[in-house]
Amino acid sequence: MGGLILSIESSCDDSSIALTEIQTKKIIFHQKISQEKQHSVFGGVVPELASRLHAELLPQILEKTQSYFKDLKAIAVTTQPGLNITLLEGLMMAKTLAYTLNLPLIGVNHLKGHLYSLFLEKDSIFPLGVLLVSGGHSMLFEARSFTEMKIVARSIDDSFGESFDKVSKMLGLGYPGGPIVESYAKNGNDLAFSFPIPLKSKKKFAFSFSGLKNAVRLEIEKVKSKTMDLERFKADICASFQRVAVEHLCQKCNIFLQQNQKREDKEYQWRHFAIVGGASANGLLREKITRICENYGIFLLLSPLEYCSDNAVMIGRVAIESYMRKEFDDLNLQAIPKMQTF
Ligand code: KG4
Ligand code: ZN
């Protein structure tokens, strides 16, 4: 076996470790233990609980990788963005391993990880336009190369995934909200409620989900005083909310693709567009963006469903690029909860 990178992900509520072969990019080992159940009773992630669970779960997973330690060439870990105290759990483990095994350390940006979930076990494609939708972020950016990411639009308040989590919480459906709301929506009438599409007439090139969330909240408050079929109501709310949230993303993506087609700096013009991040698993979003890309003759790239949400495999894939470039960090590597560079 060739040299391996051991990668660790603990930026939120998934404890995950992977081993990837550097030369072939092959995934040798991966385990992820999701903490969803433990957080669902609180309707969202409790950072202190997440941190304590990482401290318990990461060593359990690490133990299974011990027979590969002799083949390790580097230790990679997510350092930003994320929850400070959960990032620190992974970082402490990574530093201990790097120090005791005398291996280089590689700090990885989590969002770049989501981007590279497109390129697991294969080569990357640049330049490309990207829609990133996760629990913490919603943004459009141009990935021009491994080191050059140009953010063109972000959310001015909540993220796309977060708005699903909040709608689910308001309806008492559980956490994480994305898959739950999506499955309720399948049985609902998406025109039952005419929520306004955020920033529709505004020139501002950005995302916003808090107004939509409030519109949903007002409908839920109204219903408390009525007698009606609650299951039908929940399904209709989910379907109508999802339709509008996806429509909002699609409108901005349309503009992004249009601008790309008309651009003068042809060297940056992309022929591939990607959706990445945990919420890129959304079926309606995938379906609508597929159609938009077809209209523009752009190839759509999607991550495999099992690697859309947080995982250490995507972190290992980024680390291969850093390793090849000999870009290493020292033991002073810090956790950065709010992203600064990308
Ligand atoms: O990327 P991710 O695993 O974690 C962060 O980096 O934040 O994304 C998790 C987010 C959660 O907000 C979750 O509700 C959302 O992605 N999500 C979805 C779907 N699956 C997960 N949102 C909408 N539709 C889905 N099918
Ligand atoms: Zn993520």
From TrEMBL:
Binding site for Fe cation: 110, 114, 310
Keywords of this entry: Acyltransferase, Cytoplasm, Iron, Metal-binding, Transferase, tRNA processing
Required co-factors: Fe(2+)
Reaction catalysed by this enzyme: L-threonylcarbamoyladenylate + adenosine(37) in tRNA = N(6)-L-threonylcarbamoyladenosine(37) in tRNA + AMP + H(+)
Residue intervals of the Gcp-like domain: 27-316
GO CC terms: cytoplasm
EC number(s) on file: 2.3.1.234
Binding site for substrate: 132-136, 165, 178, 182, 282
Keyword Cytoplasm: yes
Protein location: Cytoplasm
Example GO molecular function: iron ion binding
InterPro entries in the cross-refs: ATPase_NBD (IPR043129), Gcp-like_dom (IPR000905), KAE1/TsaD (IPR017861), Peptidase_M22_CS (IPR017860), TsaD (IPR022450)
GO biological process entries: tRNA threonylcarbamoyladenosine modification
Domain of life: Bacteria
Cofactor: how bound: Binds 1 Fe(2+) ion per subunit.
Enzyme class: transferase
Keyword match ATP-binding: no
Family, similarity comment: Belongs to the KAE1 / TsaD family.
Purpose of the protein: Required for the formation of a threonylcarbamoyl group on adenosine at position 37 (t(6)A37) in tRNAs that read codons beginning with adenine. Is involved in the transfer of the threonylcarbamoyl moiety of threonylcarbamoyl-AMP (TC-AMP) to the N6 group of A37, together with TsaE and TsaB. TsaD likely plays a direct catalytic role in this reaction.
Protein's name according to its UniProt entry: tRNA N6-adenosine threonylcarbamoyltransferase
Gene: tsaD
